[in-house]
Amino acid sequence: MAIRTCTLDQQIAICREIAGLARAKLPVQPAFESLSKQSEHPLAKFAGEIQRSLASGLPLAQAIAPGCDLRSQQLAAVIRAGERAGMLGQAIDAWSLMVLANLSSAKRLRTSLLYPILLILVAAISLAFTIWHLVPEYEHSFLAFDMRRPDWFFILLWIRNGLWWESIVFLAVVFLPLVVWFWRRSTLHCDGWPNDPSQRTQLHALSADIAAMLVEAQVPAHEIESFTTALAVPNSSVLSQVVKTNVQVPGSRENRNILGREISSLLAIVEAKVSTPPEISRQLRELAHFLRYQAQAISLRQANFVPMLVSMVVGSAVVLTYVGVIYLPWLNLLSRIVLPEVAK
Prior knowledge:
The chain has helices spanning about 10-25, 30-35, 45-55, 60-65, 70-85, 90-145, 150-160, 165-185, 195-215, 220-230, 235-245, 255-260, 260-270, 275-340, 340-344. By secondary structure, the protein is mainly alpha-helical.
């Protein structure tokens, strides 16, 4: 089977090789056969697997992306659409652009989580250290001045005695929303598209690009919608349900949910033939360009929002803890020393 074990970087490199061959109008199979014989080339092994798959009669989409994961199914849909439009090179370039943008967005998101994680750990260690060492000092001070320990001191003593499990609960409560938030953006919606709004917008941009190529090639509207829907919902079970309930109905409500309102509206215009294919293709490409900028803005907003929110929450917790554990107890202790009648 072809390139089942290759990394994403290798898959992107292979796709770029195919895009270059497609633009030069060179056959893929002989080129990959030649590449597979260059043992020093990093893609030689995978080029040989692709060549053997093509020689056995598999279509290019299945040879390049045989897996069942989301990325492979998206790539297969892009290749089929590119072949149908006669613009395979442009289609693969658009897919590569989306994948690289998603990788950059994911890296930015992981980097943005580093500061909140360090802040939480430092705050937890600082608070635990302060409580552990300060509460005995309070007790010694009360004994040194021969004063009765107030009721609030026993609350601090109870907190200190259960400090370890309280620290674990504190970390779990603070980390759990971060983990759930990150996990939600790494999974798929029940309808098959990404939960991450940045990745979902990038996918809509890719769908607009593919639709523009198909419109330019004057492919029938119902085929364009089938190709773009297969790209936006690569999950076969979800896609089959969409096809059953929504066959050849450009611009329908279901497709607006899947493809986005703008793409579905433009495809409905193609079906109604109220504008020329070149004009619709131009508008779809402009829409794809706008959606990519929007996806980048969403990614940046997410990366900035998480550290700010965590800083506010942890900062508030630290301030409240220090006021309750250090400032107010010390103030009470000093007032008892200066005003002995308060201690009675």
